[in-house]
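Journal club prep — side note

Before the paper discussion, L.F. wants everyone to see what a predicted structure for a comparable chain looks like in C-alpha cell form. Sequence:
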Amino acid sequence: MKILLCGHVALLACLVAASAVGQSYPGRTVRMIVPVSAGGVTDVFARTLAQGFNEAWGPYFIVDNRPGAGGMIGSELVARAAPDGYTLLMAYTSHVTNPSLWTHLPYDTQRDFAPVAMIATVPSVLIVHPSLPVHTVRELIGFAKRRPHELDYASSGTGTAAHLAAVLFSQRAGLFLTHVPYKGGSPAIYELVGGQVSIMFGSLTTAHQHIRSGRVRALAVTSKKRNPAAPLVPTMEEAGVADYEALAWFALFAPAQTPGLIINKLNSEIDAMLNHRVLRERFLAQGAAVTPSSPGELADRVRSEMVKWRGVIRAAGIEPMKN
C-alpha cells in the first residue's frame, strides 16, 4: 500500500509539474526555424505566425532562417533540439518529399518531429507563354501529345513543388515534356515570360502579376477548389485532369517528445489566429488558404503525402540525390 501511495504521489507531482510548464510557456525566447532564406513565402508565413504569437503572449518568438540542402539543415537542427517547445520548425512541402529525393536524411521525418498544426496551403498555377496556341488544359494536352518531347517546362528546381506538380500532370495526362530546372521560381518565370520556355507550374503568388498583365496565360490551378485570388481560373480537375491535386503546404512542428500541453497550447493559439479575419486576409493576399488542423490531422497528412509523392517520384524515374 505504501509503495502504491508513493507511486500515486509521484504521478501527481509529474502532472502538476507538466501543468505548470504548460501554463508558464513560453516565458523565454522561442526560435522558429525557417529552413529557407528570408523573403520567400515560407519565411513570410513564419513571420506572420511569430507576430501573432507575440501579440498574444509577449515578445518571445523570433524567426531564425537556416537555409540549405532542400530544407534539411534547418530541419535537422530542430530534430536534434531539446523537446521543450523553445525550438520550432516552420516546414514546407519538402518535409514530405525529401525522403524520396535524397539517399540519406539526418533525421526520420515521422519519428523525430511532433506535429503541431497545419498553417496554410498554396496552389500552383499552370501557366503558358501566350505564343503557345492553347487556351485550355485540354487544348494543351492535345497539342503536347502531337509533339512528344518537344514542349519544355520550367521549374524552380528539381524536386520542388513546381517540378512535382508538372510531373504529376504529365503522369495523369500521359504526356512527355522536357524539364528545364532553374535556381528558384523568379528566374524560371522570367524565362517563361521571355518565351525561352513554354510551360510552368508557378506559385500563384509570383505568377499573379504576370497573369494580370497578359504576359502569361493561366490555364488551371492545382487545388481541388478554385482559389479566391484567381476565381476565374478553373481547377485541374474542372479542366479535365482527374484525381489531381498538388499543393505547397506549410506547417509547424516541434521536436519529438515535446510535452503535449505545450503542443496543444501552440495549436490552440494557431487555431485562434487562423480564424481571425485580418490574419486570414494576410494569407489570402499571398494566394494561400488557411488550413488549421489538430496535431493528429497533421500527422495523417504527413503520412499520406509521403506515400503519394514517393509514388509520383518513383514513377517518374527521378533518382535520389546523394548527400
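L.F.'s comment for the group: The domain at 22-121+249-315 is CATH 3.40.190.150 (D-Maltodextrin-Binding Protein; domain 2). Keep this in mind when we get to the figures.
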